[in-house]
């Protein structure tokens, strides 16, 4: 928003972001919209001018504009979205946090206890698909009374994934896995709670059927203590329109 103000618009700029994330969560790609009006007599910015101009003023920040396109006045970055896709990165093979590759620090979660039972996690993930009351899988905040707990999960995948430069340390036998979630929208900390419960299944602390039971309880206080995944492994991958 500050970068856009440096382009000297006539009316103050207000960004509308597609979605917010917790502190410590990353975004590979997010979307936003805004209106920009120039002084009388000046032509409208082209898409390329906005792309380069915004990035020029963002060069000191850990953010880059990847694409700019003109949209209809009826478009809204948040409410026009058809779905959002999140990726959560897990690292297996570490017996101590100091074994996490330095380039992966704060970009993945290495759960304690070694390997995970991936087939059990995949079985458990099937219970999350579809439309459910996800009350147990959301954290309480000031918006809780205002938002419906019913959400639709369109896709859950658990797949192996390459790590950053992992081919250079293959001898360490570290394994990266990605959990992919796609849905129209998500509740506060819902993805982190779903990931944490699936990891608990992989560790044998919960069974796949426990996921179904947690859904049926519909109570955030029933979520197992100390089970929510940390924010560091979570990435907003894309917003689909």
From TrEMBL:
It comes from the Eukaryota. CDD domains: PseudoU_synth_EcTruA. It catalyses: uridine(38/39/40) in tRNA = pseudouridine(38/39/40) in tRNA. The active site is at residue 22. Substrate binds at residue 86. Residues 124-241 form the Pseudouridine synthase I TruA alpha/beta domain. The keyword Secreted does not apply. One of its GO terms (molecular function) is tRNA pseudouridine(38-40) synthase activity. Its EC number is 5.4.99.12. InterPro entries: PsdUridine_synth_cat_dom_sf (IPR020103), PsdUridine_synth_TruA (IPR001406), PsdUridine_synth_TruA_a/b_dom (IPR020097), PsdUridine_synth_TruA_C (IPR020095), TruA/RsuA/RluB/E/F_N (IPR020094). Keywords: Isomerase, tRNA processing. GO terms for biological process: tRNA pseudouridine synthesis. Belongs to the tRNA pseudouridine synthase TruA family. This is tRNA pseudouridine synthase. It comes from Piaya cayana (Common squirrel cuckoo). The lineage of its organism: Eukaryota, Metazoa, Chordata, Craniata, Vertebrata.
């Amino acid at each position: 928003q500050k970068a856009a103000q440096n382009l000297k618009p006539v009316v103050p700029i207000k960004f509308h972001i597609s979605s917010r994330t917790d502190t410590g969560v990353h975004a590979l790609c997010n979307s936003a919209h805004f209106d920009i009006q120039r002084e009388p007599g000046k032509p409208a910015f082209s898409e390329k001018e906005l792309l380069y101009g915004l990035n020029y003023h963002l060069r000191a920040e850990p953010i880059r504009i990847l694409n700019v396109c003109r949209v209809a006045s009826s478009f809204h970055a948040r409410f026009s979205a058809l779905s959002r896709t999140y990726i959560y990165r897990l690292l297996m093979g570490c017996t101590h946090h100091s074994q996490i590759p330095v380039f992966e620090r704060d970009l993945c979660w290495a759960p304690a206890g070694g390997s995970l039972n991936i087939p059990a996690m995949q079985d458990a993930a099937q219970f999350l698909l579809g439309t459910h009351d996800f009350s147990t899988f959301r954290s309480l905040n000031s918006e809780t009374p205002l938002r419906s707990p019913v959400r639709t999960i369109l896709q859950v995948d658990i797949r192996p994934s390459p790590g950053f430069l992992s081919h250079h340390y293959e001898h360490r036998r570290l394994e990266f896995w990605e959990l992919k979630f796609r849905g129209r929208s998500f509740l506060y900390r819902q993805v982190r709670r779903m990931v944490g419960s699936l990891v608990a299944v992989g560790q044998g602390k919960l069974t796949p059927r426990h996921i179904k039971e947690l859904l049926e309880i519909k109570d955030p206080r029933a979520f197992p203590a100390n089970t929510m995944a940390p924010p560091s492994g979570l990435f907003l991958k894309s917003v689909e329109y």
